[in-house]
Design a protein that fits this description.
The chain is α+β, with helices and mostly antiparallel strands. The chain is built from 2 helices and 4 strands, in the order ββααββ.
């Protein structure tokens, strides 16, 4: 079995500010470096910025040009980071935090649940 490895756990949460419902997890990834963690947020922001209103778009570009380096510095100091963007009535928040990943026990010979076979390895291989 492998040794525990330090990395970053990244999540994207959405919340409808007009509803009485709580936040919902939209996506998550594990990143092996602070650069990979902040790149995930940057890719998402660049993808959605054209669809945002001018205020949310400006805040997105501010983070991309000015705030991104602070996010990376915080992660390198082992501090969590979050990037919230509000496009009324929805708030989208990306969070990244340092974590210690513990390898799973060997699974050979153990019957896995059916949902385990739906996972496609390499889904996040686009992140260097």
């Amino acid at each position: 079995m492998g040794k525990p490895q330090w990395g970053y756990w990244c999540e994207c949460w959405t919340e409808d500010l007009d509803q009485q419902r709580g936040p919902a997890l939209l996506a998550s990834i594990d990143a092996s470096s602070a650069a990979q963690a902040d790149r995930w947020v940057a890719i998402a922001l660049r993808a959605i910025t054209p669809a945002l209103d001018s205020e949310a778009s400006d805040k997105s570009w501010d983070w991309l040009y000015e705030g991104r380096i602070e996010t990376r510095r915080a992660l390198l100091r082992s501090e969590p980071s979050s990037v919230p963007i509000i496009q009324d009535p929805v708030r989208v928040t990306w969070t990244s935090r340092p974590v210690l990943f513990v390898p799973l026990a060997h699974r050979q010979g153990v019957e896995l649940p059916a949902c385990a076979y739906a996972f496609k390895p390499g889904a996040f291989d686009y992140l260097p």
